[in-house]
Fold this protein.
Amino acid sequence: MKLTRILIGSTAACAIVLTLSACGGGGSSSSSANADCASGSIKAAGSSAQGNAITDWINAYQTQCPDATIDYQAIGSGAGVEQFVAKQTSFAGTDSGVKDADLEKANERCSGGPAINIPMVGGAIAVVYNLADVDGLILTSDVLAKIFASTITKWNDPAIAGLNAGKSLPDATIAQFHRSDSSGTTDNFTKYLTATSPSVWTFAPGKDWTAPGGQGAKGSDQVIASVDGTVNSIGYVELSYLDGMQNTKAALIDNGGGPVEATSATAATTIAAATVTGSGNDLLLKVDYTTKASGAYPIVLVTYEVACQKGLSTDQNPALVKSFLTFAASDAGQSQLTTSGYVPITGSLLAKVRTAVSSLATS
Amino acid sequence: MSGVDAQQAEVEGHLSGRRLPRWSTPALAGGALLVGLIVQLTGWTVVGLAPGVVAAIVFLLGQAITSLAIEGRRHSKDRIATTLIYATFVVALTPLLWILITVLVKGLSVFDWTFFTSTMRNVSPRQPGGGILHAFLGTLEQVGIATLVSVPVGLLAAIYLVEFGKGRLKFWISFFVDVMTGVPSIVAGLFIYTALILTGVLQQSGFAAALALCILMIPVVIRSSEEMLKIVPNDLREAALALGVPKWKVILRIVVPTAISGLITGAMLAVARVAGETAPLLLTTFLAQDINLNAFNGSQTSLPTFIWDQISRGTTSSVNRAWGAALALILFVLIIYAAARILAARFTPKSR
Amino acid sequence: MSTSTDETAQSAADPAGISGTAIRAGDRNFLGLSRGAGILVLAVMAAIAAFLVWKAIPSLQADSANFLTEQSWLPDQTPSVFGIAVLAFGTFVTAVIAMLIAVPIGFGIALFIAFYARPRFGKALGFIVDLLAAVPSIIFGLWGLYNFMPAVTSFARWLTEYLGWIPIFANDKQLWTKSLLMAGLVLAIMVLPTVSAISREVFVQVPRMHIEASLALGATRWEMIKMAVFPFSRPGMISAAMLGLGRALGETIAVALILSAVFEVNTHITEPGGNSFAANIALKWGEAGEVGRSALIASGLVLFLITLAVNMIARWIIARRKEFSGAN
């Protein structure tokens, strides 16, 4: 509860700062909060993982630019890309980026465009647990994989106890929760397990949970609610969902370079080190889940905005798309992410993102 | 039905032999409760059944056996049936009241003036505040359009089935109306989405949502109107036709007005049925955080999609808003019901 | 309700027969209009079927497994592998549980309102029941998940403990939540208003003559219900049950919230798991690729066909019953 209030306070303060800088701002470099306002309205749809982050951006942007209306519908990446390709929306949000056949279709939708993936919102996938007496639970990818594969079923299993000397682990069955719906969160989580513990995690990585055991819950909102309401439980959600929970804590992951807390900063380190696999301004990323860098939280996800570099018809308001994404990539936009539990894009990657956004045509 | 009660008591008084005394039911209930209490206190269980269940079984068996011994088989059966019917009432009402009270308690916590007069524009998912005005107006428009389309179409189709229909066409329409009542709501949404939206005929809009709701509403309107038109006495039709009144006038001036009360109730039931539908709206509308009164263009939120959106955001404030919206939706349907009752009472011909 | 009324209505409906002249223009227009409305229903149904088939075909061609018997659901994989076995099983089990509970209780509560409760109380009760039809299913789902399920988990445990020798109640996972049983129970509550509201309407229409005659002959109240009410209202009761079944088969969001979707046919109905046609569409649609969406539409088509079949069977039963019932 207290955390919520602090967050509300900081968001409000942030909004005030934004408004002030909008009033007094003169220069409009791409990194300034004072995005050149565009007017009109656009629709965008896609990833629900970035839903709350986009809503915060929209609120901040619309406060600055009252003549603009942006609607984002968090219906899932696949459906978001489909609607973008069907010319229903001006841009799409996706957890996995568009590639191959989808990219071809997106290019076609942008009349040759090309369509580009712009990584805009990062997320840490927190391993959340509900153990009243245990703070700072430490896990490694092997132990994590065994818990979620149901080969470790008790909290006081020697493998867990070995990592957590001095903590009073209960002699209780682990209630494991995973996503029952298809999601980018599951996709990244299982990719992490596959990359780091291939001998333990033998299930196919993907958007759908394929391991036996545990209980499925629909959406991160229900996973966190289930974990928060079930003692001795464990689950995985985006860090932003942890806000306001009573009984749930996030585990530290030992990536081989020491235990790392799941925070915006530690996840940002991992995302900043991702390699770009797209060409030109298409910034499709490949995250190194096996990172052993100290202070790099390894279980992360990157969500992209898919936009037309050229070829978006005027009635779908390319100027507003560019103006909004420019704001999102600005320092103000990216720092907003940290306050709401998301992960900002940093370093040279951020510079590339800004270049990509500035390459968007406005007509 | 208290008339039936009195009649029955009278009849039984005359015709039957020995009966259980009036105090037998409370006495048996008391005994059963005592047994339940003993089970509760001693912790002694019969195949793990809860004390309340044990008490209920004891009551049912005790009543059946005493009644069988004193009153005979027929009355014993009647008593078992009566007890079971009362039991279904209690069993059914418990969860139903439970859910209504849950919605009431959770919903009232966010009810204030701003909740009804503001929108979600520029309200953070984490903040309390914001409101449902945009969603309420959206629901009003979407359900309103759906009603404006469904009621005339449904009524006309019902008139066809009752007053004109013959042979094979009547059979097939009647059959497919039944099938249509069973069309899962998500399939209705999928249909509008794939047939009209992805093909570019329509945008995702309030109107597209209304069309999806029509698929769910029309068969309900047809079925209920059909039943209501059927119970209009044929004497009325024949008398009017005999006077040389054209058939269409007979229907519009005599048959429909006679049945109007039932027709309105039926239509309102159909409204209630679709007002809470979420699944078809998720595919056919686009979520907005602000008021959009144009049902044909742009995003438009409705109460069900508002609830869906706020729940999935997963913060304490947003989940509270969702429960508030759920309560508002139930109240909305309640008001429609009340309005329907008043309208029905006003339009019903007095001579009936 | 009765065939005889129907037939008289039809003969009265013959305009030519009554007026003895050519059909008047007004009548012709009105007939055209109302027939058009009826035909519209047929057209919409045909369009729904056509679009579902059209959109389902690409995935059915891509499917490398047997669509009817395959248990996994990985349509966007290469090669595409998916089938409806789990969905059909889960839909069937939850619907059966819901019907087993909701139909007797729904009839019971309708009988209570119509013949046992005081009229004013009965009306108020009927109103509350009607109101529940308007509660959005997501609210039923959340209530079911966080209020109802914890309360009835002990019942599921009891089933396993004392009836565990019946294979379907066995529980190897020692978890009694998020199961087909739970989904079935919540569905039962959700369809209860439908079943009871419609059967109530039917019971109220039983001619008072029949009721009073049977009571006058010395019948007990139950005998009156059995001999005067049930035969008269049987077709209506069957359609009430069928409407309820329709809702149970197609319920989407509540089931999606409650079930712990697993793509494996598990006959232990108290264990977490299971899935249904409608819930699966809600769970998978957002992230599905092109083949995936088509596969979901194919599963929607199957659901549609099941609805069609169920209604055909209901029609057939009602038609048969009508011949035998002495009431009409």
About this structure: Residues 2-102 of chain B form one domain.
